[in-house]
């Protein structure tokens, strides 16, 4: 497709694949988890979470009543295969007929492997904006190498979004997780498989995230502001499941996989620089983002947001060694994802040079 026509509902030839899934959204609605399990006819539910969310997961799990088979607070970021095997064995030992993941992408990631390997349905109660709960994508790490795959069994059958669960997120985690979500929406707008539906959802996601995040910064205890961001995160997760991601995601996967940089802060840091590179080649996506973000300069606005919200300022701060830049250039250009403009070593080097120091995005014509 001509890049100039990508995005913003102007496609005249496209394919769109819908996915099943029930969403229950609203403050306090975690109390309905038991009713949702009942709706699905579940009798023995295993709840998985990360150690840091154990108390919150226990409180949420209590709504399952005697349907609760066990609480497994052992999820770890990027789903190490031994951690996954332990959870799958626990589900089998308990005779679980359903799994609930309470937490961020790490908890949901573990629940996905339980669902994949046991065939039981997964429900999710997200506490960050990772969007994993909206996708049929699993990930698992063996001997330091993360593999991912698509499997319809790992898509949660029900997601309960309760913005009250995000009140405990520190502002910095909120910002980085929210900007991670914005990256899903932004790359959807210039995806090779963009459709009128994905464009509309992506623009809505971007708008909710960019208007909601400063409100959270101003009043972290505002459930309304948290709800606005969470709604954006749901839509952005939907985008991640519905469109092919491009250079930004490739760079972040490389930085996370090869240098173990943290997931959401890396996304937050790199996004403005990739948009400066890609948007000149994707004018329809640029127009959609300008309107959604209320700005004439999308990369500059995203870069300013990173600073205003107190997210990580540079890849150097996140732990990328200076001599790692060339390795990322090699990896990102060797096997690039689909992208609206050719991924050249010079282009990637310029993106990384700016992201490494936290400099302003470099305009690329
Ligand atoms: P995470 O789940 O590891 O959470 C980050 C940290 O925040 C953890 O220490 C956690 O305990 C804490 N936390 C979570 N919720 C909190 C809350 N409400 N208040 C305070 N602290 C809270 O990180 P994440 O960014 O949510 O997820 C990252 C993982 O998800 C990565 O492994 C990534 O690859 C994966 N992911 C997968 C998909 C997919 O579609 N498969 C999509 C996005 C992310």
From TrEMBL:
Task: Report domain Fe-containing alcohol dehydrogenase-like C-terminal positions.
Answer: 174-356
Query: Where is coiled-coil annotated?
Result: none
Q: What keywords appear on the UniProt entry?
A: NAD, Oxidoreductase
What is the top-level taxon of the source organism? Bacteria
Q: Which residues form the Alcohol dehydrogenase iron-type/glycerol dehydrogenase GldA domain?
A: 20-163
A GO molecular-function term, please? alcohol dehydrogenase (NAD+) activity
Q: Which InterPro entries does the record match to this protein?
A: ADH_Fe/GldA, ADH_Fe_C, Alcohol_dehydrogenase_Fe, MAR
For this protein, the record's PANTHER family field holds: ALCOHOL DEHYDROGENASE, ALCOHOL DEHYDROGENASE 4
The family note in this entry says:
Belongs to the iron-containing alcohol dehydrogenase family.
The name this protein goes by in its record: Maleylacetate reductase
- The species this protein belongs to is Pseudonocardia sediminis
């Amino acid at each position: 497709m001509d890049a100039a026509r990508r995005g913003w509902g102007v496609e005249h030839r496209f394919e769109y694949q819908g996915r099943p899934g029930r969403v229950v959204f609203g403050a306090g609605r975690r109390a309905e988890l038991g009713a949702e399990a009942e709706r699905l006819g579940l009798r023995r539910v295993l709840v998985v979470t990360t150690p840091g969310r154990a108390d919150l997961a226990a409180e949420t799990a209590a709504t399952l009543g005697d349907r609760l088979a066990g609480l497994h607070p052992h999820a770890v970021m990027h789903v190490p295969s031994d951690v996954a095997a332990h959870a799958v064995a626990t589900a089998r030992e308990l005779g679980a007929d359903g799994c609930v993941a309470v937490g961020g992408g790490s908890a949901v990631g573990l629940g996905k492997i339980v669902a994949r390997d046991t065939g039981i349905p997964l429900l999710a109660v997200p506490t960050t904006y990772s969007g994993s709960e909206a996708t049929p994508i699993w990930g698992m790490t063996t001997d330091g190498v993360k593999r991912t795959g698509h499997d319809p069994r790992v898509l949660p059958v029900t997601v309960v979004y309760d913005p009250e669960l995000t009140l405990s997120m520190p502002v910095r985690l909120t910002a980085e997780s929210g900007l991670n979500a914005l990256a899903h929406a932004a790359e959807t707008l210039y995806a090779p498989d963009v459709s009128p539906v994905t464009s509309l959802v992506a623009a809505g996601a971007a708008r909710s995230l960019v208007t909601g995040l400063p409100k959270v910064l101003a009043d972290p205890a505002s459930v309304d502001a948290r709800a606005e961001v969470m709604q954006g995160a749901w839509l952005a997760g939907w985008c991640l499941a519905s469109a092919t991601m491009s250079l930004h995601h490739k760079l972040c996967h490389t930085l996370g996989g090869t240098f173990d940089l943290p997931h959401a802060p890396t996304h937050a840091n790199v996004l403005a620089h990739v948009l400066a590179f890609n948007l000149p080649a994707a004018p329809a996506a640029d127009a959609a983002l300008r309107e959604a973000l209320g700005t004439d300069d999308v990369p500059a606005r995203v870069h300013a947001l990173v600073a205003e919200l107190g997210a990580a300022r540079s890849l150097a701060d996140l732990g990328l060694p200076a001599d790692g830049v060339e390795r990322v250039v090699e990896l990102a250009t060797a096997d690039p994802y689909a992208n609206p403009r050719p991924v050249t070593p010079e282009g990637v080097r310029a993106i990384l040079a700016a992201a490494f120091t936290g400099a302003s995005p470099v305009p690329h014509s």
